[in-house]
Amino acid sequence: MSFFIEDAMAEGAAGASAAPDLISQLMVFGGIFLIFYLLFIRPQNKKMKEHKEMVDALAKGDEVVTNGGLLGKVVGLHDSFVSIEVSKDVILNVQRSAVGAIQPKGTIKAIKN
User: How far apart are CA 23 and CA 64, in angstroms?
Assistant: First the structure.
């Protein structure tokens, strides 16, 4: 039994001399953070910025699709809401952030035919 204990102590002493220093550990953590930033954080921030610019550029007459899939024409703009006409005399108020995309002019006519 004393044979195994001596091996563990000798192995521990050799492992302590080969321990990585603080700078190399910080470089590893910095590299991991850089990878997460480039793969997840930066693209998400860019996507949020593009969506905000699109919502801020809404104008009356734009044809839009909401995140729920409703297609309609913008008939009114308010501070935090947009009035969308989805059918004749049917107007819905949705939050500006619920607008998913602006469609090209004539999309509604193309679908009705």
Answer: 52
CATH architecture of 59-112: Roll (2.30)
Spatial contact of 41 and 33, defined as CB atoms under 8 Å apart: no
Give bridge partners of residue 93 from the DSSP assignment: 83
| Secondary structure element (H or E) that encloses residue 4, with its range | helix 2-17
Angle at 40 between CA 37 and CA 43, to 5 degrees: 95
pLDDT tens-digit series, residues 2-56: 656 655 555 545 555 555 688 999 999 999 999 999 999 999 999 999 999 999 9
